[in-house]
Amino acid sequence: MHQTRPAKITSPIFSLKDGYVRTIPLALIVGAVGIGASLFFSLGDGLSDGSLRRFYYIYLVNFCFLLSIVVGCLFFVTIAHLTRAGWSVTVRRIAEFYAACITPLFILFLPILIPVLMNSDVVYPWVHGGWSLHDKTEAAAIAGLPLAERPPIEVMKAAYLNPIFFGIRIVAYFLIWSAMAWFYLKTSLKQDVTGDKKLTLRMHAFSAPGMILFAAVLVFSSFDIEMTLSPLWFSTMFPVYFFAGAALSAWCTITLTASWLQQTGRVTDEITTNHYHDLGKMMFGYGIFWGYIAFSQFLLIWYANIPEETFWYNQRINHDGWRGFSILLVAGHLFIPFFAIMGRTARRNRKFLSAAAVFILCMHWVDHYWLIMPEYDSVNKTFTFNPLVDLPCTVGMIAVFIAFFCLVARDRPLVPLRDPRLGQSLNHVVH
Question: What confidence category does residue 42 fall into, taking pLDDT thresholds of 50, 70 and 90?
């Protein structure tokens, strides 16, 4: 018979304390060295001598990878309050910390945003207006048609895709995300001190309009940051595709962080095997959801056979190098995790689930690489992987992200101390 546990935190250490002081400088040094090395080695790479395009594109890959984790964690916090979920209370603070990283993450987007505002097309080809030349040529070739004049839809896109309006939208996205994330975190931290149950009701009340706002911002931000790298191509399912990957990566990151906190003794029995079981179920479910959306998007575009849509998949499937990368993505992002964590025993094994989370996160990085890097060389359409440029940038940006997390978490409690549903979470049992 299950014994009821009092709604009280028993961990002797329930914050990062002095650990974050040592971690932040080390992580920032690793980040600076990694990004600097990537920038240095990219000087001799690219489509032209001395081009930095390779660096900018791999930088954007890693930024979108980190952004998806943060956005996914913000979704988790919002949906937890919207559904009044009690089981997730002891792991929710981890998601609150990651969601609040959206504010410093804006700093990492400045190297992408500033060139756009300076009218440089080093990343986004639409900046100078000649943004559809290669795409339109490819689309016409697939359809067997001569290269036509710019269609009316491109005129409408050109009005939307201009540097100033793009900058305004980006700033608005991060302001909204930051406001939501810090509202949840500050209100939850205030409840740790006061124990006021009305604060929980306040977060519940905000969660419904907050979810609508979150969905709207996610739709337009995914369009702007990733989809406009190929301005002629469009898919109304792309925001859902981005969301599925973001939610999946968030569950994996929360699982890994919770496991690390327990391994270092900062959190003990507040997070139980039953919590990992549910986190594993979320990883399993959203992995299937990602596969469903990915296939649905592909199927609709393949069936419609519209040249302005099919060229995007043609580049990623029918060209040497990228074809194998596409197969890797399908197998590694969907089928391998599907069979690995399908069983109950696997989801209740913390070490195995953590290893699965690491693998899924690696495949999620591959997903963003597959989305972005083909546009790096949209003329020759060749697959290129430059470890001297790609790997240091990846390690460096992840290190900076870890520093952001430690900066946000600091000496703050890693578990909500006086949440009214804390007892429900501590006594959570999966039947």
Answer: confident
d(CA 379, CA 47): 10
Which pLDDT belongs to residue 28? 95
Q: State yes or no: pLDDT of 155 exceeds 80.
A: no
Burial of 386 (0-12, 13-18, 19+ CB in 10 A): middle
Tell me 266's DSSP state: S
Rounded Cα distance, 26 and 173, in Å: 30
HEC assignment per residue over 199-231 = HHHHHHHHHHHHHHHHHHHHHHHHHHHCHHHCC
Q: What whole-number distance in Å separates Cα of residue 107 and Cα of residue 68?
A: 16
Of 46, 10, 131, 30, nearest to 406 by C-alpha is 30
Q: Is the pTM of this model over 0.85?
A: yes
Q: Label residue 377 by pLDDT band (50, 70, 90).
A: confident
> Poorest-confidence range of 48-57, 200-209, 334-343?
48-57
- CA angle, 316 as apex, 315 and 318 as ends, to 5°? 70
- Are the CB atoms for 14 and 414 separated by under 8 Å? yes
Q: Which single residue is written with the structure tokens 């001569």? A: 146
Distance linking the first and last C-alpha atoms of the chain: 12
CA dist list (Å): 373 to 67, 247, 308, 367:
17, 22, 19, 10
